[in-house]
Amino acid sequence: MTKKLSSTMVEQLGNWANDVRYEDLSEQAVKALKARVLDSIGCAIGALASEPVEAIHQMTKTIGGEPIVTLIGGGKTTPDYATFHNGAAVRYLDFNDSYLAKDETCHPSDNIAAVLAASEYAKASGRDLLLALAIAYQVQSRLSDVAPVRNHGFDHTVQGAYGAAAGAARAMGLTNAQIANAVAIAGTSYNSLRVTRTGELSNWKGLAFPNTAMGAVHATLLASFGITGPREIFEGIELPTA
Fold this sequence. Notes:
Strand order of the largest sheet: 1-2
Largest sheet: 2 strands, antiparallel
Number of helices: 9
Number of strands: 4
């Protein structure tokens, strides 16, 4: 039996992500998740000939890495590099899904590249992939609802770090403690700035989340090998009073 963690919010999140089962998903949710996977792959295929995605593909081929996870368009590389490449392809055309929270917007299907890479790495089933994706969607969307950040100068990809890590960690079959560590590492490390989407837009507008997702998969791999993250990531630190 898995030992339950409960002293911090990230540990409670680890418990939940570890406990939820495919059978908990509604038929409507499963159908919607499948549609979003197909839609995102279509977006990615449509973007393969774009200049930024071609550049990333060439960079990935040049860097190399163990041929573990499939690149959309051909080839294989490491799970984290594959996440960045595939995520860039999914995002480039800006046709993938959107979630409109009260004070935040995001593209939850940006999580698909991370969950897909983690699932292939772990040789997970299709059901495992869909469940992990549901977890990623839930975490990012819920954080967008209750903890919007764009009015504070941060990008909406901030919440995505938590969702991508939670989904990737579940896809890899990590324990509740390891899931908590993956989320803690990713959430601490990837806090992009809102300037990404202001002024004269650069290529980074479509690459900020793929970069965050790549980091989340890297954090998940670290957690799978026993690296721990800060347990108080949600609670923060108590600042001294003046």
